[in-house]
What does this fold into?
Amino acid sequence: MIGYISDNLLLPILDFFYGLVPSYGLAIIALTVVIRLALFPLSAGSIRSARRMRIAQPVMQKRQAEIKAKYANNPAKQQEELGALMKEFGSPLAGCLPLLVQMPILFALFATLRGSPFADVPYTLNLKVLPADQIATVEAKPFNSPSHSIFVTATSHVPVIASLEQGTKLGVGDQQSVTLHTRDGASFASVLADVQDGEAFTPSWSVTKGEGVVSVDSNGTITALAPGDAVVEAKIPGLAARSGFLFIKALGQVGFYTDGAVNWDIAILVAAFGASLFASQILSGMGMPPNPQQATANKITPVMITAMFLFFPLPAGVLLYMVVANIFQALQTFLLTREALPDNLQQILDQQLSQQTVAATATGAGSQRLPFEPNKGKK
It folds into this structure.
């Protein structure tokens, strides 16, 4: 499904925007905004549900405890009352469904930005080499990799598959060529023959695991050397992987620290992601009574997620998308926090804020008292 969404929805939108303004950076931003606008109703439902549950949760927990205690010996009545409570305030799980619905699209968008034209596209082949006397008993099963759309021009891309006719099991001394071809069977080499400077997309071949088990030449011919497991990788260059945008040196650049140098463009993108995530969480608490546990989570979560991208690096193009998506999410959160609440929830919120004010006043008055009474008897 993810590949279908990418090929038939996201890439055509990307082609459209690149046709308007020939900049892959702007195309990423435009694609992100379009997808976020399309998913606005779903994500708005999740934000509304989270806001309402944050207000109603203390009351719901108290009411649930009372219902379970009151109808402990009457399960049917207990379920009826709990159902009525959910109907009154809504289910805590109501915000999960919109997230689940939009996940395939978001995963497809993520996968699109990690592939061509924004990054080099790897085809990974997991191989097993058997002794020559054992391979004769193994039934050959052809292997086909997942399809990846490869951009060969700014607006032209073809789905390419890597195939092994005899499968991923070889006998010592056997040779087998990896075939890169389109879905209709045309070889990738024939596609490149019709493209200006097509040799720029010639794949590179390498053994990433088991160098003593197999070898591979520049044409993709694998030779089995010794029994064991091996991984061969074909990598097709991305058209825009080395294209820059604003302060970004290359949209396909991966890693905060490479070749002994800090990539400051990646550092800025990661920092912007953390700042926008923090802002979104702060905005989600606007107009709400303070929650110490939630406040701590709001501080720690952005730091943890941001730090994760330093250890599990992503291409600059993906980080650009995530920053834009977070900014859009923050604006959406700001708008929805100004939305009127249902009367029953507004009443609960007013009570919570009133109690907060009373508590703050009492605390302030207590802090103004003298820490001790003077010893009046001392002269």
